[in-house]
Amino acid sequence: MRKQLEGTRVAFVVANEGVERPELTEPWKAVRDAGGEPVLAAPKAQEVELFEHLERSDTWTASIATTELTVDHFDAVMLPGGVANADELRTDDATVAFVRQMMKAGKPVAVICHGPWTVIETGELHGRTLTSWPSLRTDIENAGGHWVDEEVHVDGNLVSSRKPDDLPAFCRELIAACGRRS
Asked: Which 3-state string (H, E, C) describes the chain?
């Protein structure tokens, strides 16, 4: 039996430190369980340190550097939160360029919690609606976006959620968005 995302590659783009563990691990598992291929990318293709809020939690290894990401090799991108993670990614030119290209290509871009900071940096939010951790509301609105307080919001190819409690709905919509591309 064919799995829903068979042949679908999803770039999970994170910083090398400060990633909110469940916001990476639960969507990763959802993509893998649906038959997709999750790929971990970071500014440096080396160890990535995960956190549970402010406590160190786990380490994973990025298999690809953000400078090596190309829109032709991925069907979707997922940006987990974590304040330090998202703050570093929005200053990584390679990550911002990749996410901008994915947005322009109409490929699924999924963000949770502070993940939208990188999308803000792309300049591609004008007229788009999304949700996030509440403290990003002003940033999103200043970038021309419309912020809503919802468990999950889908605006075309953009899937967004607020926090780890929203992960079941977020994972469901991430898989649905990737499935529409398969």
From this structure: CCCCCCCCEEEEECCCEEEEHHHHHHHHHHHHHCCCEEEEEECCCCEEEEEECCEEEEEEECCEEHHHCCHHHCCEEEECCCHHHHHHHCCCHHHHHHHHHHHHHCCCEEEECCCHHHHHHHCCCCCCEECCCHHHHHHHHHCCCEECCCCEEEECCEEEECCHHHHHHHHHHHHHHHHHHC
Active-site annotation, residues: 114
What global pTM score does this model have? 0.96
Average pLDDT along the chain: 95
Domain that holds residue 134: 9-181
Residue 74 included in any domain: yes
- Number of domains making up the chain: 1
Q: Provide the pairing of β-strand 55-61 with 47-52.
A: antiparallel
Q: Is residue 2 part of a domain?
A: no
pLDDT confidence of residue 1:
44
User: CB atoms < 10 A from the CB of 59, how many?
Assistant: 13
